[in-house]
Every structure is written in C-alpha cells, then in structure tokens.
Amino acid sequence: MSLSYTATLISMGHGLCYALVSILFILLAKKLDDWRTKDFDDDRHIDDGNVAVGLRRAGLYLGIAIGMIGALSGDSAGFRTDMFYLLVDGIVITICLFFARFINDFIMMGRMNNDRECIRVFSLGDGRTTTGNTAIGMVEAGMYIATGFILNGSMSGGGGSFYQSLGSALLFFVLGQVVLLAFGLIYELVTPFHVRDEIKQNNPAAGIGLAGILVALGIILKSSLSGPFTGWVNDIVGFLVYTLFGMILLIGFSALVDRFLLPTTNIATEIKEDKNVAAMVVVQATLIAVALIIAHAI
After folding, report:
1. 84-103 burial by CB neighbour count: b if 16+ within 10 A, else e?
2. Which of 95, 123, 159, 241 has its CA 20 to 30 A from that of 8?
C-alpha cells in the first residue's frame, strides 16, 4: 500500500513539474510580446480598460495552453525524456503562435497593422472616445486559439520518431495556417458585406463573427490531426479530407443557425446594421458547440 502511495506522489510531482513548465511558457510568451510591443505598454493599456489589447493577450495565453495540452498528452517515455520533449514542444508552440500573429496581421487582415489598430483612438457617436479596435483584438484572439487547437492536434498523436513528430507538427501548423487563411477568404466571399471594412471600423460584431468561425474550424482540424503518426501521405490526405468536410459543415451549419436562431432577422443585418454583439455571441457560440460535437463524433 505504501508503495502505491509513493508511486502516486511521484506521479503527482511529475505532473506538477509538467504544469509549471507549461505555465512558464505562458509567462515567456508575455515577456516576448511585451518586448515585441515595446513602443507601447500593454499592461498599462489593459489597466486602462483597453479591451482590444486584453483580448489579443487572452487569445495568446489560451493558444499556448491549448497547444501545451497536446504536448502533455500521450504515453510517457520517462520523466527526463518527457521534460525534454515538453520543452522542445513548448518552444515550437510559442514560435508558431507568434508567426501566426504575423500572418494574421499582414495577410488575414490585409496589412491593417494590428498593433496600431489596438491602440488607435476611435470617436463614439455621443462625442466620447475609446482606445483600441476591439474587433481586431477579437480576430487576433480567435486566430491564436484556432492555431492552438491545430498545434494541439498535431502534437497529441503517438507513433513515429521524435523528429517525425516534430516535423509533422511544423508541417501541419503551416497547412493549418493556409486553411485558416483560405477559410477567412471564403467567409469574406460568402458574406454580403466587406468583413475587413467592418472590422477596421471597429465593429465588434464583425470581429466576433470571424473569430468564432476560425475557432470552430480550428477545433475540427484539431480532431483531424489527433491520433498516431501513420505516414506522411496518409496523414496529409486525411487532414485535407477533414478540412474540406469541416469547411462544408461550418458553412452549412452557419446558414442553419442564421435561419433558426435569428428567425426575424439575419446575421448580415445583425453585424453590419445593428452591430449586435449579443446576437453574434449566441450565433458563434452555437457554431463552436457544433464544431465540438462534430470533432468528437467523427
């Protein structure tokens, strides 16, 4: 019995070490982002109630945590080996998330410059002013979280060597970013208004709309990437099939949600004309719920 207790305590100690390492990567991400945005003080903006800066930071921290959960899954190879793998995975996850931010800034948002937008001063209709483009902050947070799910899936499988697993994670990160960008373009094409223009004008409902559907797709892609390494061709083909399937489902369910959850109006009206944040929170939460169900059912 004492041996069982000892083994349990050792296991709990190892788990605590893994958790502390993962939390350290969140703190590292904060320091790196502080250094990257050294022209303005993120902490001061958050203290002053800048929602845009708060959202993007929250998305970064959640993306790190979601990715690290994938790195923590799988069978143990021994404490020292597990710690080494976790450190390497944490470095890869952190680098990938910062690269995803760059992609979001210069491609997804059409060279809007997220940093400048997040500290930009906007005039409100009643003469007051507010600092920070909340819509941009939401989209950046959504991109971080979606990328975290993709990294989670690519790192959670077993099989193959350490270098194969690392190469697989990097490859599917790149493919995942391409998919997110492509889906963002498709979303823009099927939406009866200019999504980027609405986001640039600090329409938070538009930001929720794009961020929510990116997160939903990231959840489905995470499911497609989870599982053992079965070979490059099989894994890539499987990923592409899931990607196409996920895109079709999300677009289809988005239309159904529009029809049944908003029977007296539609998503386009709620975003462009009413800027209805409450309606978009309900709509995108429903899509994310559908994505979670799909991800665990297929």
Report:
1. ebbeebbebbbebbeebbeb
2. 159
